[in-house]
Amino acid sequence: MDISIWGEYIWVFLILIVLEGVLSADNAVVMAVIVKKLPHDQQRKALFYGLVGAFVFRLIAMLIISYLVNFWEIQAIGALYLLYLAIKHIWDKNTNKNKIEKEEKEPKPASFWGTVARVELTDIAFALDSMLAAAALVVTLPAIGTYEIGGMSAGQFTVMFLGGLAGLIVIRFAATQVVKLLKRYPTLETAAFLIVGWVGVKMAVITLANPQVGILSEHFPDSAGWEITFWFVMIALGLGGYIIARKKEKQKG
Predict the structure, then answer these.
(1) Cα 223 vs. chain centroid, distance in angstroms?
(2) Which of 5, 14, 146, 152 would bridge 156 by S-S if both were Cys, CB 3.0 to 4.6 A apart?
(3) How far does Cα 56 stand from its chain's mean position?
(4) Which of 140, 166, 144 is nearest to 23 (CA)?
(5) Is the pTM of this model over 0.70?
(6) Residue 214: helix, strand or coil by DSSP?
(7) Residue 9 to residue 32: CA distance in whole angstroms
């Protein structure tokens, strides 16, 4: 297999881990906010049910989205969604919005099972959010593998599955650490979302080159000029984010 394909898979997987980490950390913090007014022993039970629900709903969302993602309409939605994630992150950074504060202002749930229901509804929203973002990223990868799963190649589906699994691990074990890391190096988070937005541009190009759309040449996404441009910008965003993060850390020190 061409080493450039392996590089593309590894790069997208790393970006997916960061993205899933951010979304899952949000999921974990929101779950904690929802259950915090319950007695301590009930908090643990509600969070356990929430973790089970997070796994189940992500698996269901993964299977559904993998069947739909090859339709150009879904590709277009995926491209817009990735661009939305990037733009929303930058907008929220500049306007100092805080989703968690909004959650804290909501009224106290009436009962344990009411709390569990809210946790599960939150899991559904985050599962769709997480898997749509993951599918939109992996569908830009070259197809590898001798069989398909839900319309995706084995390689694409594996990357999406592992990214979703990484998100669950973050929810269970590392949400606090991820939040601390991103607070320490906020430029890394911004760079990651800029890369997500750039991948959204790539997916938009794939959509526009779809034979049913026909705005771009069908062969344009595979052309050398576009591939060089895509990877140049991708690497520049990654290196730029790392360099700026290191400089800011040294300035604080």
Answers:
(1) 27
(2) 152
(3) 17
(4) 166
(5) no
(6) coil
(7) 33
